[in-house]
Amino acid sequence: MKDYLVKAIDKTKNLRLITVDAKDLVSEAQKRHDTWSASSAVLGRTLIGGLLLSAALLKYKDELTVRLLGNGPVGATIVTAKADLTIKGYIQNPHIALPPKKDGHIDVAKAVGKGWLEVTKDQGLKEPYTGQVPIVSGEIAEDFTYYLAKSEQIPSAVGLSVFVEPNNEIGAAGGFILQALPGATDEQLAEVEKRIKALPNLSTLFLDGMTPENLAERILGTDCKILAKEDVSFACDCSKEKYSQILATLKPAQLKEMIEKDHGAELVCRFCKEKYHFTEDELKDVLKKAN
Ligand SMILES: [Zn+2]
What spacing in Å lies between the alpha carbon of 14 and ligand 1's midpoint? Predict the structure, then answer.
């Protein structure tokens, strides 16, 4: 089954919800970066959060970058999502696995540590806008909720979940973001909060075959309306052309060294691990163009 998200609204039109099944895209990231359990959970949750944020906030050709900058063992996690709901990302230390918490879950907060969550929105304006909040939990969903409240003035609830199998494959991945619109009453908020608290573990639900539509009904009620259904995927916009432009910005001495000493160059994309090889002749062309 292909990953997708749905946008839904409750019958009073005061609660907006986006739910997503992201198993394939988190699996793609896991394979490309060869992440171990704790790194998979951190990168996966950040990818799902970034995707939900872009679905909630972006338009047209906008993009946003989420930087989770904690002092825990996984290091920094960076993801970039576009308004077309493609996303790419990487984690500084992919090979982190930690002893499970008492409840058996991956200790995501420990893997992340303390630090900052930064979100940069590039909306085609001169200056991209960056909002920054301290990491308040490290479990990541709560951190996105805090960011939305503090930086975007959007009261929300966020749920993010990644289930890692013992062989490091991704068993399930998905999440939701609920936004309360200004017309929402206290009773409505209390009711929806009760429904979210009563939900079983999200991973368990996804492992049992729950769809984004099912999750929307469980949170908003069966009388909610599904407004849109959209595909989501892991996709990187790197290319050999892009890397030859990056090479062209190097000093001629550096390029000459690559040609004369290394007889070629291999560049690896940080976001997707794609390798780009440049032969001696290709590097000579780059050097000619750079001069
Ligand atoms: Zn790439």
Answer: 39
Work out the percent of the chain whose per-residue pLDDT is above 70: 99
One domain for residues 154 and 277: no
Neighbours of ion ligand 1 (CB under 5 A): 236, 238, 269, 271-272, 274
Among 171, 154, 176, 144, CA closest to 46: 144
* Separation of alpha carbons 51 and 40, rounded Å: 16
Q: Ligand 1 mean position to 237 CA, how many Å?
A: 6
**Ligand 1: distance of its center to the CA of 26 in Å?**
15
Q: Are residues 280 and 214 in the same domain?
A: no
Distance between Cα 235 and ligand 1 center (Å): 8
Distance 9 CA to ligand 1 centre (A): 35
Q: Are residues 165 and 281 in the same domain?
A: no
Listed as ranges, residues in the chain with pLDDT below 50 are none
The predicted pLDDT at position 198 comes to 93
> For the segment 117-164, what is each residue's pLDDT rounded down to a tens digit?
999 998 877 788 899 999 999 999 999 999 999 999 999 999 999 999
How high is the pLDDT of residue 289? 82
Expressed in angstroms and rounded, the spacing between residue 182 Cα and the centre of ligand 1 is 40
- Residue 88 and residue 222 in one domain: yes
CATH number of the domain encompassing residue 264:
3.90.1280.10
Total-model pTM: 0.94
Report which of 237, 201, 225, 289 is spatially closest to residue 84, judged by C-alpha positions: 237
Does one domain contain both 211 and 250? no
Q: Are residues 188 and 223 in the same domain?
A: yes
HEC string of 115-143 equals EEEEEEEECCCCCCEEEEEECCCCCCHHH
Q: Which two tokens stand for residue 210?
A: 């729950």
